[in-house]
Amino acid sequence: MRIKTKQDLLVIICKALTLLSKDERYPESLESLKYAEKEIEKYDLKIIKKRLSDRLHDDDRIHPIHPEVAELLMNIYLDGIEEGDSDYMCKLGSLYYTGRAGEQDYKKAAEYYYMAEKVKNDRTIEKVENINGDNQEAETRSLKVNLQMNDFDRLRKDWDKIINEIKRDHNLLQVSFDTWLKPLKLHDLINNELLIIVPEEGYARILEKKYSLLIKTTIEIRYKIPIKIRYITESEAKELSI
Fold this sequence. Notes:
The protein is mainly α. The chain is built from twelve helices and three strands.
């Protein structure tokens, strides 16, 4: 059921409240729904949908999203996507990537991530075109510097931004970010194979399962270069550098 009016949303919220009140696994989702029910008359429909979906997306993360909540989120995101909202595109991509809403589909996840990036790029281009005078000259000089850098130099320069973007866009917990992404170091880019140094060999299995696609997709969207990812240890990096 697509949500075009406050009444549409209220009907769905009431149904979800009835179901979640019988399931003790979802206390945070239940609280978010109760809050939205109370606040629905105070705010514009767009604001209510945004606040509610932001909360529900991160609620009760130790469990899959309740089916009724998942359907609500999907409908809110699809409504927003129809209006060109890139944040909703990323959030829907995240649901498909993690599978928390019941369906894990990396292809659909990538499609929504690319869709969001295209919207962001179009808006950025429009803003750049509106820059005048010294600001425009500064932007042009910055773009020229970036173009002169090779792909690996750009990735190495922006690596902290890349992993923090992954953390933000995919709502990673701080502990997961500190454990799995923050320790990674870039070693080289050879024939589109990005060599990433890991603290120990066991890291590679977890990274390949949970984070490789996120890293690959983020880089390919940002820099328009196809890459493969290979994890290596410090000792392997030293051997490659000889």
